[in-house]
Structures are given as C-alpha cells and as structure tokens.
Amino acid sequence: MATNFVKYSQLINNSTKYAQRMKRLSNRIFGEVAIPTNPKSMKVVKIFAERPLHTNEEIIHYYPRHVETHALMLKLREYGLFRDEHQDFKEEMKRLRELRGKVKVWKRRLNQEQKES
C-alpha cells in the first residue's frame, strides 16, 4: 500500500491540469520558479536569489591594509629591496634645491623662531 506522499509525487508527474497547477503551487510555496522559463530568464532569477552585495560581510568590511603596506615598503626601501621612483625623484629635487640654496623653510618654524627671539 502506497503512502500519501508517494501518491502525491505520482500525481505531480502526471500531465493533468490539476497536476500542473499543483506543481506550480508547490514551486511558489518553496520559492522556486513557478512556470518553466528559458535559461536567460533563469539567470536573472539566480541573480535575485543570491544574497545582496550590501549585506555581504566580506564586501562591507574589506579594506586594503594601506598603513601596514606603506610601512613595509619604507622598510624594504631602506634595505634596498624596493625602489620607489617617486620618492627617489622627490629626494633628488630636494637635494638639487639645497645645492642651489633654495631650501624651503616652513612658515610655522619662522613664526616659532620670531616668538622665541
């Protein structure tokens, strides 16, 4: 003697109007696509079924480690293992300014020296 579930599954596999409506109702209840659609539409269904990006913890709390990376690059530059061409250029320009006698003096230092005098 078959159980009620087996009878239900056999009924759904039949191609009667009642079976089709029950299959659609079952799909709607369990969050599946009610009416069979083409693969292009199924792609949209899959995208909307996924978790939204603004609630994904991995995306929200991601940040590159800028401070640690900068400190590492400075240390590697001191050891001669990393070449920072921009920093090299800035140091060379500063060296050339010193040779020409045009050293930058900060206004804050000038104000402090005037107050001390």
Automatic annotation (TrEMBL):
**Where would one find coiled-coil regions in this protein?**
none
Keyword Mitochondrion in annotation: yes
Q: What domain of life?
A: Eukaryota
Membrane-spanning segments? none
Q: Which Pfam families match?
A: MRP-S33
Q: Where in the cell is it found?
A: Mitochondrion
- Whether Mitochondrion counts among this entry's keywords is yes
Checking InterPro entries in the record gives: Ribosomal_mS33
Q: Which GO terms describe its cellular component?
A: mitochondrion; ribonucleoprotein complex; ribosome
Q: Which UniProt keywords apply?
A: Mitochondrion, Ribonucleoprotein, Ribosomal protein
Entry similarity comment: Belongs to the mitochondrion-specific ribosomal protein mS33 family.
Q: Which PANTHER family match?
A: MITOCHONDRIAL RIBOSOMAL PROTEIN S33, SMALL RIBOSOMAL SUBUNIT PROTEIN MS33
**What name has this protein been given in UniProt?**
Small ribosomal subunit protein mS33
